[in-house]
Design goal:
7 strands, 169 residues, alpha+beta, 4 helices, 2'-5' RNA ligase, ligase activity, Cyclic Phosphodiesterase, Chain: A, 7-stranded antiparallel sheet, ligase, Cyclic_Pdiesterase
């Protein structure tokens, strides 16, 4: 799998990492437990089975729009059997425009999931994956009411899950 991701500024990164740590300290699944060197709070902008060089160059050109303002909002749960807990990213016009332009640049790439096409995308930052319903309840109790975090996305990167490598665009 190939992804295009947006990285948060220092404030957003620290806020998310703090929530990751609170979940881990409570004995719950957390992205803090993923110790890979590329693990960082991010917003997934696009996914495909392959991203050829020409399409990657087109997407890299879009990174000139950064930084863009973002706000991390409420907690949200995705999934049905094994669940994921995330912070919603409040969809603002500049972010939605970047997403639409990225989707257009990658429209001919194979394996683009329907949940990531414009109009269906739910921008978010993942806090934990693989939770059971009872763990979701415990995680919500652990985190309590979360405040909106205002910040920015400051960098765009590519992640290649086949090669386990990430690089800035």
């Amino acid at each position: 799998m190939q992804t295009v991701e947006l990285l948060l500024d220092e404030l957003g990164d620290a806020a998310v990492r703090g929530e990751w740590q609170r979940l881990a300290d409570a004995g719950l699944p957390s992205q803090a437990l993923h110790t890979g060197s590329t693990n960082a709070p991010h917003i997934t902008l696009a996914v495909a089975r392959a991203i050829p060089e020409a399409e990657e160059a087109a997407v890299a050109n879009l990174s000139k729009a950064l930084p863009l303002p973002v706000e991390l909002g409420a907690l949200v749960v995705f999934g049905s059997r094994r669940l994921a807990l995330a912070r919603l990213v409040l969809a603002q016009p500049p972010l939605l425009s970047l997403h639409e332009q990225t989707a257009a640049a990658l429209q001919d790439c194979p394996g683009v999931p329907q949940y990531l096409v414009p109009g269906r995308w739910t921008p978010h930052v993942t806090l934990a994956r693989g939770l059971t319903p009872s763990q979701v309840a415990a995680a919500l109790e652990t985190l309590g009411q979360v405040d909106v975090v205002s910040g920015a996305v400051t960098a765009m990167r590519r992640w290649d899950s086949d090669q386990r490598q990430a690089w800035l665009l």
